[in-house]
Amino acid sequence: MAVPLSVLDLAPVASGSTASEALRNTVDLAQLAERLGFARCWYAEHHGMPSIASSVPEIVVAHVAAATSRIRLGSGGIMLPNHAPLRIAEAFHTLNALHPGRIDLGIGRAPGTDPVTSSALRPFDAEQFPQQLEEMFALSRGEYGEGHPFRGVRVVPGDVPLPPVWLLGSSGASARLAGSLGLGYSFARHFSPSPPAPAFQAYRESFQPSDAFPAPHAIVAVSAVCAESRDEAEFLASSMQLGWVRLQRREFGPIPTPEEATAHPYTPRERAVAESYRALTFVGTPAEVRERIDAVVEETGADEVMVITTVHSHAARRRSYELLAREYGIG
């Protein structure tokens, strides 16, 4: 295997199921990923979406960490404009104290929700993201000096640092910032139509070594559905094609069944939306999916591949990761 494989888990909620069951599935999937040899599992912050149960990644991380022993766990990511920097510093200092050497802090600048829900979160201005990031690090390290209003603020527990921090991006806007700060970088190719290679190049060109990252480390996140046959994989993937169409209409329901998806009477416009999502997803046999993944690694020089598999059936999702692990010879 050329690069490590990891898991991005949005705790998908399938029709006929519940968010509580989806959260239980996160534990089951992480335990499977640990046995199969995946490097890490990350959980993303989304709000107001009945198809996604991971609204509070730090709680999911803590719960899954208690049920696993080796695999790294983290946020992919925490949407920093939704939070006070002190709050995130405290949460991830705590996680790092509880599970030393196993925690990652992935941070993004998008709200992870619709405008109305975003207003209910009372977020910061996303334009302040670099300043928020600087504040989080300064508070974590106790760097505010004489005369600063936060001089006496202490992050507790204070006997551990923040875990390794990664900036998440989908357009390349955060790549140079991540590099200049000596952070990790992760590109969301699983939903972004922007080519990842320029962002990776910008990250590496601007990289300054740090204690956490003496060398650059860039992750590319891809969407993939593996099955024993291409027909079966296409059938499973149809759920999220319809889900994506509904998402573009701001219909945030649970993930439909593949039977419902294949029977849906797509309009020409809906078909175009579904095909645009399908173009971003690697669907097929393990060998076919590996060929697509390896091509992205070759294109970007990624140090790691993070795979998200969103299908209606949790058993089929497990099987997809099992087949991919076997194809790469890691389990």
Total number of distinct structural domains: 1
Radius of gyration: 19 Å
| Average pLDDT number | 95
The main pleated sheet reads as: 8 strands, parallel, barrel
What is the number of E strands? 9
How many helix segments?
12
At the fourth level of CATH, the homologous superfamily is: Luciferase-like domain
Give the strand line-up of the largest sheet.
1-2-3-4-5-6-7-9
Given this structure, which CATH class is correct? Answer: Alpha Beta
Q: Terminal Cα separation, in Å?
A: 12 Å
Strand content: 15-25%
Unreliable runs: none
Helical content stands at: 40-55%
Oligomer: single chain
Summary, kept brief:
The chain has 331 residues and is an alpha/beta fold. Helices cover 44% and strands 15% of the residues.
